[in-house]
């Protein structure tokens, strides 16, 4: 919110409208399951924290933004486990990647399985998606794991830094504990350097049960900021 509009109740009015709209959509689309409204707040924004706290929200989840400079020493790329192959994203496997994502994130807090329309709009169909630096691990015809990358030209123009954003990295349960996350991450980082990206960035849930935070730390990513998801059950 621009400074001149602060302190006039605008934030509270917008939050109230969002809650009412969310409740309407929930009753319309998912009436048989519990619902909640979630608001993400940067830890450095105390006024927004005070707003959501006063409205009855509770801090529920913490996410780190992590970055690493691409020219820094890169982790070694381990060999693929026997029977598995690594390849760049393949358009003809797109729906298989979507289904792998649904399976990999089935137990992730707050995850909503994307249908084909949402997937094509917000994942591999959006203009920022970069298939040339997105990667798959295949087990025959099956997608065992995947890593999807994005690049926003407007951000690069504003900051002067070409930044690859690691949007999603997932390993299906059947193929976990075989080092595929580290394999994909190391492969992607090398492809970022080769493609001229100067920095890579990601966000990670600090309580991710699959150990993603430690994986990224081992690959040289460092925390640059933290945001909190505040949640309030829908009435």
Describe the structure.
This protein is of the alpha+beta class and 235 residues long. The chain folds into two domains: 3-63, no CATH class; 73-219, Gcn5-related N-acetyltransferase (GNAT) (Aminopeptidase, 3-Layer(aba) Sandwich), CATH 3.40.630.30. It is 32% helix and 28% strand. The chain has seven helices and eight strands, in the order αβαββααββαβαβαβ. It has helices at 10-29, 46-54, 94-104, 116-122, 153-159, 180-194, 212-218; strands at residues 36-42, 58-69, 85-88, 135-139, 142-150, 163-171, 199-205, 222-233. It has an eight-stranded mixed beta sheet. The chain is globular and about 60 Å long. The model has no long low-confidence stretch (mean pLDDT 95).
Approximate shape: globular
**Cα-to-Cα separation, first versus last residue:** 27 Å
What structural category characterises the helix and strand content?
alpha+beta
| Total DSSP E strands | 8
CATH C-level of the largest domain: Alpha Beta
Fold-level CATH name of the largest domain: Aminopeptidase
Could you describe the largest sheet, including whether it forms a barrel? 8 strands, mixed
Provide the low-confidence segments as ranges.
none
User: Which band does the percent of strand residues land in?
Assistant: 25-35%
Q: What does the radius of gyration come to?
A: 20 Å
Sheet with the most strands: spatial strand order: 1-8-2-7-6-5-4-3
- Discrete helix count: 7
Q: What's the name of the CATH homologous superfamily of the largest domain?
A: Gcn5-related N-acetyltransferase (GNAT)
Give the helices and strands as they follow along the chain. HEHEEHHEEHEHEHE
In helices, the fraction of residues equals: 25-40%
**On the 0-100 scale, what is the average pLDDT?**
95
Domain unit count: 2
The second-level CATH architecture of the largest domain is: 3-Layer(aba) Sandwich
């Amino acid at each position: 919110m621009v400074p001149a509009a602060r302190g006039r109740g605008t934030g509270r009015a917008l939050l109230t409208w969002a809650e009412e709209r969310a409740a309407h959509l929930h009753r319309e689309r998912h009436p048989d399951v519990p619902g909640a409204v979630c608001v993400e707040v940067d830890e450095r924004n105390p006024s927004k924290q005070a707003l959501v706290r006063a409205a009855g929200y509770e801090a529920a989840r913490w996410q780190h933004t992590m970055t690493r400079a691409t020219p820094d020493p890169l982790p070694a790329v381990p060999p693929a486990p026997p029977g598995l192959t690594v390849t760049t994203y393949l358009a003809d496997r797109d729906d298989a990647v979507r289904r792998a994502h649904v399976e990999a994130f089935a137990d992730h807090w707050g995850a909503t399985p994307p249908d084909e329309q949402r997937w094509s709009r917000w994942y591999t169909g959006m203009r920022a998606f970069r298939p040339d630096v997105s990667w798959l691990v295949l087990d025959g015809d099956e997608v065992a794991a995947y890593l999807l990358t994005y690049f926003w030209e407007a951000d690069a123009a504003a900051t002067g830094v070409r930044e690859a954003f690691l949007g999603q990295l997932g390993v299906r349960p059947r193929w976990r504990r075989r080092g595929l996350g580290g394999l994909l991450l190391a492969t992607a980082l090398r492809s970022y350097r080769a493609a001229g990206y100067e920095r890579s960035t990601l966000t990670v849930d600090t309580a991710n049960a699959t150990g993603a935070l430690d994986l990224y730390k081992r690959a040289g990513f460092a925390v640059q900021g933290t945001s909190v998801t505040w949640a309030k059950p829908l009435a």
